[in-house]
Amino acid sequence: MKQYETVIGLEVHVELATKTKIFCGCSTEFGGAPNTHTCPVCTGMPGSLPVLNKKVVEFAIKAGLAANCHIHQYCKFDRKNYFYPDNPQNYQISQLYLPICYDGAVEIETSAGKKTVRIHEMHMEEDAGKLIHDEWEDCSLVDYNRSGVPLIEIVSEPDMRSSEEVIAYLEKLRCTMQYLGVSDCKLQEGSMRADVNLSVREVGSETFGTRTEMKNLNSFKAIARAIEGERERQIELLEEGRAVVQETRRWDDNKESSHAMRSKEDAKDYRYFPDPDLPPIHISDAWIEELRTSIPELREAKMERYQKEYELPAYDAGILTESRHLAGLFEETAVLLGNPKKVANWFMVEVLRLTKDKGLDPEKVSFTPKHLADLLSMVEKKEVSAQNAKKVFEKVFDEDIDPVVYIEENGLKIVEDTGLLTETVKKIVDENPGPLAELLGGKDKVMGFFVGQLMRELKGKANPDSVRKALAEEIERRR
């Protein structure tokens, strides 16, 4: 039986996090009533002229530098002509001949080890509008709020061979863009979108097969399923002696199948020509160096530093650096407390748990690091129990309250009154003659029952070590 190899290249569209659109002053904010973030420029009105947003060029250069790209210091915009309702001008302003970034590479890591994926180019362009299909009214409506939102399109070489490599590549791009602050890369809002170009060939062959392009992929899971589905479809065609047609296909994640949309266009079909309304862009050496020095510490470097500076395991460093924002909160808290490992454990358990439970974007977590450091300091000094500290932290997480004040006002400080502790131990032991008999009979596990009862009675305000000691002394007296 023939063995097949999958060959995959990606076109990744990343919406840039500028406040205004690429060629006009309209807001790029996600949402809003349809067609309210618009003007004559981004709706393609006759006589309107585009003016380039400098921040778009800055973000594109930073993204290119982070992906080890060369920068075209002289580049320009071209018109890509196509006719579709979501494209108000009947052309898209993009870059074909001189993209701003080219010949880059990123390193990914999968279960098979490390691998380099080459980047053919990154170019700037404007986004199109959005079609809303109304099945009840049997019509399609157009929202131009997204029209003119700045994009960079990142075009890879066909270097990936599996869905695992594709997801690793996308995760690397997403994390890099988020660390740079050039995009939030929210797939659910369309600020990161990927088109998958896929073909199959016999193992050992040097010739590429006929490729198809997969669209409508808005999650990493959908992308992985689409890759496996298209791979199987193409292999089945070849096994039946039929040809794979070069075309654009739309993936239906609910049905886990795809269908043909249109024949795949080549560059000549778009009749590209230089945009006459926009002058060429000249990028100086000084500007490139200025942007290079402004690039923050990226995830890989941060992970390595955490392992060396904080002596954290590689796994912990990986978890803590998934979000640049949370990593910043962690570092500030670790410096204040002086115990990075303890802070790391708290972040990986409590911070991530609450973030997940509340469905919160990690970038929206906003407690003050000093408040967490103060709380953990009280735990270390045994001024508050770990159980109560977790409850207090929920208030810190939600409302950023001062934990020291809150613990004092709500009587949550650990009680060191030995008289009260002794009386409570006697009371609990007297109220539970059955478990006491089992304990005296040699069932040591029952000790945990008594500790739990005591902590409950004292509302978590007793030192667990003191509780165990007082309980052990009382049991010994009863033997």
Automatic annotation (TrEMBL):
Oligomer and partners: Heterotrimer of A, B and C subunits.
GO MF assignments: asparaginyl-tRNA synthase (glutamine-hydrolyzing) activity; ATP binding; glutaminyl-tRNA synthase (glutamine-hydrolyzing) activity; transferase activity
Record field: catalytic activity: L-glutamyl-tRNA(Gln) + L-glutamine + ATP + H2O = L-glutaminyl-tRNA(Gln) + L-glutamate + ADP + phosphate + H(+); L-aspartyl-tRNA(Asn) + L-glutamine + ATP + H2O = L-asparaginyl-tRNA(Asn) + L-glutamate + ADP + phosphate + 2 H(+)
Keyword annotations from UniProtKB, A to Z: ATP-binding, Ligase, Nucleotide-binding, Protein biosynthesis, Transferase
EC assignment: 6.3.5.-
InterPro entries, per database record: Asn/Gln-tRNA_amidoTrfase_suB/E, Asn/Gln-tRNA_Trfase_suB/E_cat, Asn/Gln_amidotransferase, Asn/Gln_tRNA_amidoTrase-B-like, GatB, GatB_C_1, GatB_Yqey_C_2, Gln-tRNA_amidoTrfase_suB_CS
Lineage: Bacteria, Bacillati, Bacillota, Clostridia, Lachnospirales
SMART domains noted in UniProt: GatB_Yqey
Any single GO BP term: glutaminyl-tRNAGln biosynthesis via transamidation
Domain Asn/Gln amidotransferase: 328-475
Function: Allows the formation of correctly charged Asn-tRNA(Asn) or Gln-tRNA(Gln) through the transamidation of misacylated Asp-tRNA(Asn) or Glu-tRNA(Gln) in organisms which lack either or both of asparaginyl-tRNA or glutaminyl-tRNA synthetases. The reaction takes place in the presence of glutamine and ATP through an activated phospho-Asp-tRNA(Asn) or phospho-Glu-tRNA(Gln).
Gene name of the record: gatB
Organism (species): Blautia luti
Entry's family note: Belongs to the GatB/GatE family. GatB subfamily.
The protein's name: Aspartyl/glutamyl-tRNA(Asn/Gln) amidotransferase subunit B
